[in-house]
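quick one before i forget lol
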Amino acid sequence: MNIQAISLIISEPLRVATPLILAALDELVTEKSGVLNLGIEGMMLVGAVASFVAASITGNIYLGLFIALISGIAIALMSQSTANASTYNAIVSTNNAIVSTNNAIVSTDNAIVSTDNAIVSTDNAIVSTNNAIVSTNNANVVIYNSIRFSQVLTLCQSKFFNLDAERLAGGYR
């Protein structure tokens, strides 16, 4: 092994894990203050997708960063207002925010992935056909949204880091 390979083995995990480390530190401070914040992953994911969309449309990375900041704040305020305005506890309100976040990102997925219109519209037809069945079992909807959401994240990561989307997502379908 040469020095470049060793450097790559050490630096790449740190580069990839930095957002998760920062979120974990934020959660640590929040938990020490006595606040239960279950929506950190949702805020990060909404910020990542919003940043990707803004940066790809405008070509300005700094504007994408600003849009990510604003969208994360909006999700945090939505989660907080849901917790304050209702008699539900924080866990229920955070789950509502996560479900609405997944729905927003799935609709963003439909807008971003214009090359797979036939596949996306087929998926939408299957979901709308099964709405009567799925309405009694909401867990299936959340599972479907998280599957689509992971595909969007894989696509966003591949576009941001100039990697091959087909290799990462195994043929994005």
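fyi The longest helix spans residues 3-32.
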